[in-house]
Amino acid sequence: MYVTVNGVRLFFEVEGTGLVPDGPVMRQKPVLLMLHGGPGADHSIYRPAYSALADVAQIVYLDHRGNGRSEDGPRENWNLAQWGDDVRAFCDALGIVDPIVLGASFGGMVALAYATRHPAHASKLILISTAASGAEYLERRIELFERFGGPEAGALARRHFLEVGGHTGQASLDEWRRLAMPHYFRKPRDPDMARRAVGRPETLLWFARPDGESHRYNFFPDLHRIQCPTLVLGGEDDPMHPIESQADIADALPQHLVRFERFADCGHAVMPDAPERTTVVIRDFITRTK
């Protein structure tokens, strides 16, 4: 399905009903709005894993502008501020009130942009394996890539994070996918997941180019603006956004609002490595009233 938001047509899917019979009334389930990682991926990377939550929330999967099946719009609008504003406008267009917004990795950055720019809009926020600054823990990332991938992966990470400062073109991205991405996760991933996804490498190359936004963004000065309960999840073995990044986000948020969960033996985006525990933790956060 498509809806026009801020001048572009955005693709979305809905899983589960919003209203369910509950004795003499129809009870409204909360909307869980899923913001996918990437950039350059699509919502399909969350399916079917997050379908396990469809009994407690109506799940809405959104493809960001320039990602998946959504329209591009101008490339100069492929930035976190615009993607964050699109989330608010998307909810307004569909009449979604008080969403629970979940973002993993790049999707978490979009969620932070949305939540700091529209702090009274979400009812709850879920951040998984993300970062509030593009310049955090670069040496730590290199160390972890070398630990899990050996000297070749470590050297590639050093060039990417410290020397070149991003991707210089398709050859750079291909090398990263071959040498670095296999070490994002501690368990083998379903190979069909990548085959199902609608890949948009041009978006990733734009965002992660040496002078791109992926190295400049910093949400820390604005995290205090977030007003909703926030769940922060991170893997202890995540080389892309180390667990220290999740701890820093949790420390910067209002402490009466934040819940921080660390996952041992898990890499980037904890659902693939620990699906049972991740589902339990998110389910409890969705259904808890306090």
Helix and strand topology:
Elements: E1 2-5, E2 8-15, E3 19-22, E4 25-28, E5 31-35, E6 58-62, H1 80-94, E7 100-104, H2 106-117, E8 124-128, H3 138-163, H4 170-179, H5 191-196, H6 201-207, E9 230-235, H7 243-252, E10 258-263, H8 270-273, H9 275-287
Helix pairs in contact: 1-2
Features:
alpha/beta; 290 residues; eight-stranded mixed sheet; 10 strands; 9 helices
Report the structural category. Answer: alpha/beta
The CATH superfamily label reads Alpha/Beta hydrolase fold, catalytic domain
Bin the strand percentage: 15-25%
CA distance, first residue to last residue: 34 Å
The biggest sheet, with number of strands, parallel, antiparallel or mixed sense and barrel status, is: 8 strands, mixed
